[in-house]
């Protein structure tokens, strides 16, 4: 007993609030899941807006208006203006860029912002559907007895009872992104995947906080100083000190998201087709591969196998990421040699 008192106990209520009159509980997991997608959506709009600026796709269809005489841009926007003017020789585009930055400072929606919002709105439908459907089917195929679901198909849609697999979600996001770009056609598939990589890692990170509150996807028993005693594990296990696996994965995915964001911000006018998504896949799934050693077995296969199902599924993701990184770097070398 004294040994157990040395560790932090966690036993949060998984229900965030109950809808009045309907008496329907809303779980923290659902709230965090929705909030993560919302902020990931805003994150994507920011990246897409900068992508358009980097490609100097400055629209010339702004309605005529007069900027107040003597108006000076803020230091932040003046820096943006000077940065792009060095790369824009067209005086009309320079003037349009100045108008856009003025509108942004006035918190008005410019045509360029509208373009990014419209693109994000259309793509978000494919990504959300891909995430939910793919993650659910992935969980059933990889971690459950598929015959149980085939005999009772209604169980498939009961996502509120748990059961989403990140590997299935990633595969479905790739498919959804491909279908969206095939229909939209405003950029290449790899450019789009690069752009959604940082927001995707951001969303994955916060979903793990939902898992933490639900006391699920827990680590194996441990006596490390930061081990946490989950009083009511979702799997019904004993309340023992365990590796806080959801927090480990939160740190992993958030670190990858921040790295990709910094890379994007510091290489604004460069084109790395496939590099960002390749890095995201290699870093996240390599980290996931090693973290699986500290996780409780999730299937009967995991109990008797050296490598768990999650590790086996991570290997092709890592290989695909390495391929994308090398392909991207080779593409850059070819461009450099051409110049």
Features:
mainly alpha, 5 strands, 62% helix, globular, disordered N terminus
Fold and architecture overview:
This protein is mainly α and 339 residues long. Helices cover 62% and strands 5% of the residues. The protein has 11 helices and 5 strands. It has a 3-stranded mixed beta sheet, with no helix packed on it. Strands 2-3 form a two-stranded antiparallel sheet. The protein is globular, with a radius of gyration of 23 Å. 32% of the residues are buried.
Q: What is the number of strand segments?
A: 5
User: Based on helices, strands and strand pairing, what is the structural class?
Assistant: mainly alpha
Strand order of the largest sheet: 1-4-5
In quaternary terms, these chains amount to: single chain
The rough form would be described as globular
How many DSSP helices?
Answer: 11
- Major beta-sheet overview: 3 strands, mixed
pLDDT averaged residue by residue: 78
Short description:
The chain is mainly α. Helices cover 62% and strands 5% of the residues.
Protein topology:
Layout: E1 8-10, E2 15-19, E3 24-27, H1 28-54, H2 75-85, H3 91-105, H4 111-143, H5 146-151, H6 166-184, H7 189-214, E4 228-230, E5 241-242, H8 245-266, H9 275-291, H10 300-304, H11 309-338
Parallel strand pairs: 1-4
Antiparallel strand pairs: 2-3, 4-5
